[in-house]
Every structure is written in structure tokens, then in C-alpha cells.
Amino acid sequence: MKTVMVAVIAVVSVFASATLEACIAEVEPEVGPLRAGTCKSHDSDPDHDVSFKDDVLVLFQRPSAQAGCSCHQPSSSRTSGIDATGLSLETYKSLMRGGNASHDTIVVPGDPCASLIVQKVSNAPPTGSRMPPGGPPYLSPPEIALLSDWIAEGAHDN
């Protein structure tokens, strides 16, 4: 009798596990392709020095409809990004200060892969939505590379 009970429990366990996996697969969100191991923390164009003022800040200052970050600009009519996260992208100093949760992980000088800002504009952020919300348009791959290169170069205020 004990052997039969163990066999029944094993069959029920396998069935329940298969059913649970099927249910979970139906409700898992689409989060984009796996990016683990795909981020490169090196400067993709070492012959070009990226300027915060001339290259990076202009990306942030564009309207959201042009893949910009106007929600994180205090001068914008919509400041929902600042209101929700505390992150202002208006100046170098405000960017480097980070937001309420991101703090010094928003930009990790020398390491774009560890920098939350690169993760959030990429196609599979580790948490929350890809930025800008409501996209596309999103930053293009060359624009993301420019941001990553600036961070890989040390994220200087230049």
C-alpha cells in the first residue's frame, strides 16, 4: 500500500508541475530578448571622444516623440519622470546625482553595463519599462552606443 501511495504522489506531482509551468508560460510578460552577457563595457569608437554637452545632453533634451527624455526635464510641461523617480536629466550634476532609487547606479563611470541609464534605454531593461515610455521611438542603437561610449570613457562633464 505504501508503494502505491508513493507512486500516486509522484504522478500527481509531475502532472501538477507540468500544469503550473503551462499556466506560468501564459502569463509571463514579454520582456525582450535575453541580454545577459551581451553588454560590452568598452568604448566602441575609441577614436571619438564623446562630449556630455554636445552628444549626450542633446539626446536627453529631445521631446519624447523624438526618443528624448522630456519627462525628466524640469523645464518640460510634463515632468512625470521627475515626479515618479526624482531623476532629472537637465544637467550633468543632476544626472550623476541619480533619482530616488538609482542614486549612484544611474551612471557608473567606466562601466556602461552597470549603469542603470544604459539598461533602461536598451531593449530589455532589468526592471520596469524601457525608456522613453510609450515608445517607439526609442534611442537608436548608434545613440545607445554613444551613451555607452561616454560612460565607458569615464562619464566626464565635458
Beta content: under 5%
| Helix/strand order, N-terminal first | HHHHHH
Number of helices: 6
Quantity of strands, as a count:
0
Based on Cα principal axes, name the global outline: globular
Helicity range of the residues?
40-55%
Oligomer: single chain
Give a short summary of the structure.
The protein has 158 residues and is mainly alpha-helical. Helices cover 42% and strands 0% of the residues.
Any key phrases for this structure?
mainly alpha, 158 residues, 0% strand, 6 helices, globular
Please provide a written account of the structure.
By secondary structure, the protein is mainly α. 42% of the residues lie in helices and 0% in strands. It has helices at residues 2-27, 52-61, 80-85, 92-97, 116-121, 141-152. Helix 2 packs across helix 6. It is globular, with a radius of gyration of 22 Å. Residues 14-36 have low confidence and may be disordered.
